[in-house]
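Q: How would the structure tokens look for this protein?
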Amino acid sequence: MLTAIAASIAVPLLLLAAFRLWLTARRLDRLHKRTEAAWYGCEESLARRIVAARALAATGHLAPFAAAALRTAASAADAADRTARQELESELSAILRRIGEAERGDLSAELADAEERVALAAQFYNDAVRDTRALRASWFTRFFRLAGHAQLPDPFDMPATVDTGDPVTR
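A: Here is the predicted structure in token form.
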């Protein structure tokens, strides 16, 4: 009689624990996929900005040393692997910030759009990274090792290149 009562309590508890394990593992898998998709979107936006920067360097509106620095920074950022990309993209951002609107000429709108897309894509990626890291930091995920061998994603911090209109960041 006592074993039947214990079994009637233990079986639902085990099923509930198994269900929570399954839900948490699925959520973690979806978050890792979301993070990767957000990274590819960020890479696409960075590539678009690199193309716009190369086009600006080729227009002839810039001084020769500025055009050479812009071409070099764009090529370095384009050829960089994922770990070194943040620093090189920050250098490209710094060079683009130093170029005035008058020097940008017809490409001013294209560069502004590309910079805004980079800022938004980096924000989406960082939001996905934050959510993934938060779930991986929970005791339940760590105790049951639900992340497996998946690499912990790192945030991609880009310097602010556009005015988002948020009065707090101004």
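Residues 8 and 132 are 36 Å apart (CA to CA).

The chain has six helices and no strands.

Upvote if useful.
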